[in-house]
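User: Can you model how glutamic acid sits in this protein?
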Amino acid sequence: MNYKDLADLIFPDAKEISYYEEKYPARDLPEGAVVSRFAPSPTGFVHIGGLYQALVAREMTKKTGGVFFLRVEDTDQKREVENGVTGIVNSLKDFDMEPDEGMITETEEKGNYGPYKQSLRKDIYEAYAKYLIEQGKAYPCFCTPEEGEEIRKKQEAAKIRPGYYGVWAKCRNLTVEESAEKIKNGEKYIIRFKSPGREDRKIKHHDVIKGNVDFPENDQDIVIIKADGLPTYHFAHAVDDHLMRTTLVIRSDEWLSSVPLHLQLFHELGFKAPKYAHIAPIMKNDNGNKRKLSKRKDPEAAVEYYKEEGIPVDAVKEYLLNIANSNFENWRRANPDKSVDEFDFQLNKMSVSGALFDMVKLLDIGKTVISKMSAEEVYENALEWAKEYDKELEEMLEDKEYSLKVLGIERGNKKPRKDIAKWSDVKNSIIYMYDEKFFASDVTYNYAKISDKEEIRKILQSYIEKYFDINDDKDMWFNKIKDLAEEMGYAREVKEFKANPENWPGHVGDISTVLRVALTGRQNTPDMYEIMQVLGKDSIVKRLKKAIG
Ligand code: GLU
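Assistant: Here's the modeled complex, given as structure tokens:
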């Protein structure tokens, strides 16, 4: 009996690997085109760090005319949740990052290199495991979990490296006959890789992000096919990224230490290894301590959070590019109006250690992104968000014509308003412009400097009677507020006041604050002239009267 007979006994129906090699030929792509992928597990949660990796992969494939695909790694069936693929697919869609190939719904896919869901690739893994067994590079292991535990304890007690290797790898020395005998007796087994490595030898690896790294060779006989018949991550990675013709593996740096094993697997399988780019995790400053963004502790770790909060997709992408590439910020300064898609992403400009997540910065980008949008764009985005998350805002936006006027205030000019960072800010930033909301609310009027009720009444009354004319242009309008200030004994100009503050109780700004608060209930709003033009005469008079009353 030889290895081939053992392989046939274990996988009698597996195809020759040549079948798969032909079925998934080298891709016909221009020189230098990067093929990369996003390969999450469907655990019902897309981590912002995952989206970050996917964005980097997509940037690289896009700029080189390559292929970005989505592969679902569902070989750990205990961790799987229902509709987990849908969650991943939708998250990519939400961020305009649909893959060129791979899963497109829970069960459907596109592309010629599938199936793109690992649980559907069992026959493929078997073929390659069989191929390794035939060559004596893999073997069945009959050790029970209890035996494994025993080995671990002994290693711990002796303070030596844990794992299944060297003298500890009991089943690696079974003869083909012994193994066949056990199998025929119905003993349970898994398949292990027979590592040719030695711990005292070093390998050199060049990582596209981390640079040159030295590792000891792998000498662990890792599991390649588990008891449930599915492959481990390591084996599936080698087989899939080979057959899907991945040229650049972009993944979390928690996998960096597995590189020696992975290179060995590629080598023993006769595959050309891809390049690797290991990305540092996104970190968070937690009271002075730097730690990974945690799924458990940080709501912003979930991609879903950004959608619920209504942080614009472009802001999130821009922010991620910002922390991904040190030269992004300069590029943005030089090209304030270009789309993020025009940025020339450089993999070697990625930070080697983890970037700090900064919500303030992200929201700041959100404000800039929204400030550049037209009223129509803000309207459409806010409405789409509101439909899902805020009924009241949705109702407010029903009057599209009026809403466009409201959202158009201080927009489309040189210094557009920057008070909206996310779609969930929209309601609060415009609600006072809607009469049915404004008059139904208990407005608390806080007039800042001027607090005497009688004085305020006089200011407002006089404004309605003598100065207010909806048809005034902006200069005229402001002149009249100055006139009003003068009538009330206040300085016409702020400058005059500042030179001799003892001469007046206040200045024109204090008077216009009274008007602003009376009209909106707020001390800070966008341009009051524009606000008044949108509110219109009737609403203005009614609002001033409400304040007087
Ligand atoms: N399923 C693996 C993970 O989520 C993928 C790693 C990789 O991209 O190869 O960590």
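A couple of observations from the model: Residues 39-41, 73, 237, 249, 251-252 surround glutamic acid (CB under 6 Å). The CA atoms of residues 334 and 405 lie 32 Å apart.
User: Helpful, thanks.
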